[in-house]
Design brief:
By secondary structure, the protein is of the alpha+beta class. It has 9 helices and 8 strands. Helix 2 crosses helix 3 and helix 5 (83-98) runs antiparallel to helix 9.
Length: 297
């Protein structure tokens, strides 16, 4: 780390000690002195200062642990994390890699609402508008969120049966949808082919803040550019990106493991074997744009 002539060394050491205390969960005085690079007497004074403002507390059996004020600070910071801001870098990386339309949808009450759209550079592409409500039962984004909702919350988001459908593959009732949601939880991402918009294929994965689903991210494009193999690759790509976003929104929480590649057995509710394979078309411009176009209201 570069030296900063304005930095106060004693404050830096105290904050490094607090970081070690939070990361380790418990420190003895000897460990505190070693990690902060100071004498035991200095480490003792720093810990007692942290204890005086409830950032640390003594453990009856010996040593120190994080205090209630450290927990309160952490929860305040987590509560103020803005999902679109945290997700922005991952969305741009997905756009650069996939060259298709990338989206972020957020759970807002009983609605799942598009919050961010980065449009594909291809002339033939998905065109969506931020603020649009996506269907929870038939869209990849909606189902990625719905798979992690329970009971009354899920019923409220889905609405009344029968659900409106544009494809015979879309579920009309919750009993038809539940096996699909189980498949999403098992695979780590959702897949939709022509269910909310004819001729469109989309993969999406859930985003969590702490242990609650707050939204989902997606990659969507015309089915003519989305072979079955490419959909599987994009599905894992979007699932891994969603895990990284969730990790930033929930520091210290372990993300669920993704299944091995090609683990999707045939015959599952969204098996794609019945769809024909197509080869993605080349970039029409001949050049690789580095800045996505953002859709606006």
């Amino acid at each position: 780390m570069a030296e900063n002539r304005y930095a106060v060394d004693s404050i830096r050491r105290a904050l490094e000690l607090l970081r070690a205390l939070v990361e380790q969960g418990h420190l003895s005085l000897d460990e505190a002195a070693r990690l902060s690079g100071v004498a035991k007497s200095t480490a003792f004074r720093m810990l007692e200062t942290l204890q005086a403002i409830e950032l640390a507390e003594r453990v009856p059996s010996g040593g120190y642990r994080p205090g209630p004020e450290a927990l309160r600070w952490g929860l305040l910071l987590l509560g103020r994390l803005d999902v679109p801001e945290v997700a922005a870098g991952e969305l741009r990386s997905l756009w650069l890699d996939a060259r298709e339309t990338v989206g972020l949808a957020m759970l807002s009450g009983r609605r799942i609402v598009l919050a961010e759209i980065l449009e594909s550079p291809y002339p033939f592409r998905m065109a969506e508008v931020p603020g649009t409500t996506v269907p929870a039962h038939s869209s990849a984004l909606g189902r990625a969120v719905a798979a992690y909702l329970d009971g009354a919350v899920l019923e409220g988001v889905l609405g009344s049966e029968p659900f409106q459908v544009v494809s015979p593959d879309s579920p009309e009732r919750i009993d038809d949808l539940l096996p699909m949601l189980e498949t999403i939880r098992r695979n780590g991402y959702s897949l939709e082919i022509g269910e909310s918009a004819l001729g469109v294929a989309c993969v999406a994965a859930p985003v969590f803040k702490r242990d609650q689903v707050v939204g989902a991210i997606s990659i969507a494009g015309p089915r003519v550019r989305m072979s079955d193999e490419r959909l599987e690759d994009l599905g894992r790509m979007v699932a891994e990106a969603a895990q990284r976003i969730s990790a930033r929104l929930s520091p210290g929480m372990k993300a669920p493991e993704l299944p091995p590649a090609a683990a999707q057995p045939s015959g599952e509710p969204w098996d794609t074997e019945s769809y024909s394979h197509h080869t993605p078309i080349p970039d029409p411009s001949g050049e690789r744009s580095t800045e996505p176009a953002r859709a606006s209201r």
